[in-house]
Fold this sequence. Notes:
Number of strands of chain A: 11
Oligomer: homodimer
Shape of chain A: globular
CATH topology of chain A: Dihydrofolate Reductase, subunit A
CATH superfamily of chain A: Dihydrofolate Reductase, subunit A
Number of domains of chain A: 1
Structural class of chain A: alpha/beta
Radius of gyration of chain A: 16 Å
Amino acid sequence: MSAVTCQISMSLDGFVAGPNQSIDNPIGEGGMRLHEWAFATSSWREQQGSEGGEHTTDAEVVDDVVRNVGAYIMGRKMFGGGDGPWDESWRGWWGENPPYHTPVFVLTHHPRDPLPMQGGTTFNFVTDGIESALEQARAAAGDKDVSIAGGASAVQQYLGAGLLDELYLHIVPIILGAGERLLLDVGHPALEPIEVIASPAVTHVRYRVTH
Amino acid sequence: MSAVTCQISMSLDGFVAGPNQSIDNPIGEGGMRLHEWAFATSSWREQQGSEGGEHTTDAEVVDDVVRNVGAYIMGRKMFGGGDGPWDESWRGWWGENPPYHTPVFVLTHHPRDPLPMQGGTTFNFVTDGIESALEQARAAAGDKDVSIAGGASAVQQYLGAGLLDELYLHIVPIILGAGERLLLDVGHPALEPIEVIASPAVTHVRYRVTH
């Protein structure tokens, strides 16, 4: 059966976004530093349709984490556009050709028709909770995995509900000091490190969640 | 020149002690789980003068972290005995033969004569601040390293003041949810992972602090 996974970059002090997040700066102050290791790779650039970058261990990780994903689930804040009812002209943070290339299920309180984008990404808006979103994502993913794309709140909900099978953390050697903490109010799941990949920029640790 | 180091076990959500710490339970609820990986090793048992345990990768780490230490610095809470003036009958948490086997410098506001114990450990009480403690510890350590033994507050003070050269984290795959956070109010030091050792129980990451 396909797995429910999550891969996310976390600072050494546990944050996945910096302080003072806003609609204009959803990743918070200093939060972009969490992703510099990925931006430097050839794989990330290729996924964005551009060239260059370094072909490193980190690049192999960036290739690996998308390989078996058949659908994503994300919180509304990660799709973007504020908390209220939809302005239908808003098409998300991700440009006309988002980097997902699969169905994406957005957790929201406000209904909206599916939004097909270029490159195989379709945003679907789910208003009846995380289990419904997972059921729809599983159906869309077929034999492939469902990946919880973020943000912290979406990951917390799936991890806390015992619905996550695997958490793949990219532990970035920076200290943000404040911001959005990933592992907050998730209970005490049992985790087992099943793969560790070291690079000069980041430490990748794949955990199996054993519930 | 000798280095100033710190090696400490941290939960995946950033805690080095569990919630509801008290004089009777200084490591807090669930905090002992941070150290189970070490207790299971042959090296730790040998350091305590007992036998058994497993000779694993983790055991090699436990051997390695004491090898080049010539003196320790610890906070008063880690030595134990409450916040007020000393009850001179109190000889610390660590038994008559503490596991340090070197001079140990205890940060405190209350003066006390040095306390020699069995096995080479002498507790020295320093009332004039972290820089004085470091100076005394360096002198005692000679060519060897000075290790900040803990707790969180002592590590924070040395890291925040730019006095720590190396932070060796044992990242334990548990989520404590609350307790004493390690990397709090330490500013934004630059860290570089220089060694990663994986085991089924814990991920050991050695960071160079580049200030």
